[in-house]
Design a protein that fits this description.
Chain lengths: ~170, ~425
């Protein structure tokens, strides 16, 4: 397709990172099919730019940023299907009928607007500092903080006080 | 009061950092093939994009000129908001029981066939899509994507394509009425901002910060959402009676945490959803703002909120002339397209899973099981031909009141998106 050694490098890089990328996409979307789509889109974009970016510093961070954008973009790509909200809210597939706290939590998270959700996942599931989240999302630290606050407010309201209390034990 | 803040949010969310239930199923070879094709397309597009930047500037006066002419005149032959006149109820035996409800609407019978046309796309924009059309189908708005973050709003009128400059990022037009007034939003330094387009000018709606404007009706009333970025389900549904005064909030039931307005009918009825915990219910606000929950079709999975299991995720997405369409259900496999007759209260599960649009006569458009776009007019079912061969999917976006004009988008295998117009007669 292109330069053979560049292609080999690409395949090697992508193959090694697939599980981590998929895990992150799953954290955002809560659905393994959609996680596949997001990763597929990300690695397609990556291949498109590979000749230029294969040598950059912090390639992992760059790719993570591409994946976050693919996730946020997914709304727009699928936008025709949805117009706004026309599509039923994102699927929440319970593991079983006795869905547990985690299912409720995922359901609530899937209702938080995408940018806010991305911030919550990166900061609190991946424990990344504000500055790094800002860099990944290409926004200011102030925006990350305000998105965090909006996102947490949304989660608390969705879950209700009792559930929040049950799930966040006093430490 | 238990707070959820930066200190304990990790306790809440960290347990979700588990492995997906199965390993990734992505195709690296396909990514290389698609990526390669896009490299090539992109190289070809760069020259086009440069040319377009110049063209776009030149196109603005053209748009101003175009909107100053008779496009803004009322549609011929119609003075009532919907441009309709009373008709005898149920003129033939071919309509289904639901469409047999008397409707103050006239017009010829259902179209017999449709042909597909490719709407022109600006050069260098491999993803160009329709996002809105007026109820007559003459004005069509869309979006041209030049790259990850560069989008521009486009307007098709006849066969003429023009570019609309909307300040901010990620602009989009979500709705346009017969008079050519359009509403939508864009991001202003990360804040969603409700915009209005009229006479070639873009303005910010009063009180439109942190808000979206999702639909405008024939008399110029606008439905939207404010707060939480202007996107449901936690935002607050609002209505601008006109574009000159701030919006007022539509009432929500006491136990609801938020809601969303999705569409506004010509009589001022707003449809959308309310959010109660992790559940969402279809909801309607009348012209007097009085709200009511719509019934779910029998058999829709329901579970009590807080019972440890997400309940129904239902919404009303569109309304036209008293016909409302949306979906009911809890999880993807069980979600069913649903049509409500707001006048009689009848609720019906639609046999075609993917009919997502309804017009003034209750006719439906969507995607059929074999992937073709379809028009369902009473008991007539018309397959809309593909405008582009072998699409990955085809999704209608608008259907005109007479069903003579349907717009939509064709998604091809490489991820490109093409705007399509179907003319039916």
């Amino acid at each position: 397709m292109g330069d053979t050694s560049a292609d080999d490098e690409y395949v090697e890089y992508v193959t090694a990172r697939l599980p981590a990328l998929h895990r992150l996409a799953y954290a955002f979307s809560g659905d393994s099919h959609r996680a596949d789509d997001i990763v597929q889109q990300t690695i397609t974009n990556l291949y498109m730019r590979w000749p230029k970016i294969r040598g950059v510093d912090h390639l992992d961070r760059y790719v993570r940023s591409m994946l976050v954008n693919a996730f946020i973009d997914e709304r727009r790509l699928a936008w025709a299907r949805v117009r706004l909200f026309a599509e039923p809210p994102e699927a929440v597939t319970p593991a079983s009928d006795d869905a547990d706290d985690r299912t409720v939590l995922r359901a609530a998270l899937s209702r938080v607007p995408r940018r806010q959700r991305a911030v919550l996942v990166l900061r609190f599931m991946y424990d990344l500092p504000v500055a790094e989240v800002a860099e990944i999302l290409g926004v200011s630290a102030g925006t990350v903080k305000s998105q965090t606050s909006h996102g947490l407010t949304a989660l608390r309201r969705l879950l209700g006080e009792r559930t929040v209390a049950a799930l966040t034990k006093e430490r | 009061m238990v707070d959820l803040d930066e200190h304990n949010a990790g306790d809440l969310l960290r347990p979700l950092r588990d492995d997906p239930p199965r390993p990734p199923a992505v195709d690296v070879r396909r990514a290389m093939r698609d990526g390669h094709r896009r490299r090539t397309t992109r190289r070809a597009a760069i020259a086009g994009a440069v040319g377009l930047a110049v063209l776009a500037v030149a196109a603005v006066p053209a748009v101003l000129a175009a909107t100053g002419d008779d496009r803004l005149a009322p549609p011929p032959g119609g003075t009532s908001p919907t441009g309709v006149t009373p008709a005898p109820p149920s003129t033939s035996g071919t309509v289904d029981p639901l469409t047999a409800t008397p409707r103050p609407i006239s017009g010829a019978g259902a179209p017999r066939s449709c042909r597909a046309e490719k709407l022109p796309a600006p050069s260098g924009a491999p993803k160009t899509l329709v996002t809105a059309a007026d109820p007559t189908g003459k004005l069509i708005f869309g979006l041209a994507e030049y790259g990850a973050d560069v989008n521009r709003v486009v307007l098709w009128q006849g066969n003429k394509l023009s570019m609309i400059d909307i300040p901010g990022d990620e602009p989009q037009i979500n709705s346009v009425n017969e008079a050519g007034t359009a509403v939508g939003w864009s991001m202003d330094n990360g804040t969603t901002t409700a915009r209005l387009y009229r006479d070639g000018k873009v303005t910010t709606l009063p009180g439109g910060t942190d808000a979206t404007a999702v639909s405008i009706n024939a008399s110029g009333a606008i439905a939207g959402n404010r707060g939480h970025g202007g996107f449901g389900p936690l935002s607050h549904p609002v209505v601008w009676r006109d574009a000159t005064a701030p919006p007022h909030e539509l009432p929500l039931p006491k136990d609801a945490q938020g809601g969303a307005a999705n569409d506004i009918d010509d009589d001022g009825t707003v449809v959308g959803l309310i959010t109660i915990g992790v559940q969402q219910f279809p909801y309607v606000w009348g012209p007097d703002d009085a709200g009511r929950q719509l019934p779910l079709p029998p058999g829709t999975p329901v579970s009590p909120n807080g019972g440890g299991k997400p309940g129904p995720s239902s919404t009303v997405s569109h309304v036209r002339n008293g016909w409302a369409i949306g979906s009911s259900g809890a999880y993807t496999p069980s979600v069913r397209r649903t049509r409500w007759d707001l006048r009689t209260g009848a609720v019906q599960t639609l046999p075609d899973q993917d009919t997502s649009l309804v017009n003034a006569r209750g006719w439906l458009a969507g995607t059929g099981p074999d992937g073709h776009a379809i028009l369902v007019a009473g008991d007539k079912r018309i397959q809309l031909p593909h405008a582009y061969p072998h699409p990955q999917s085809v999704l209608p976006i608008t259907i005109s009141d007479d069903a003579h004009t349907i717009t939509g988008n064709s998604y091809d295998q490489s991820g490109d998106i093409h705007p399509v117009l179907w003319r039916c007669s």
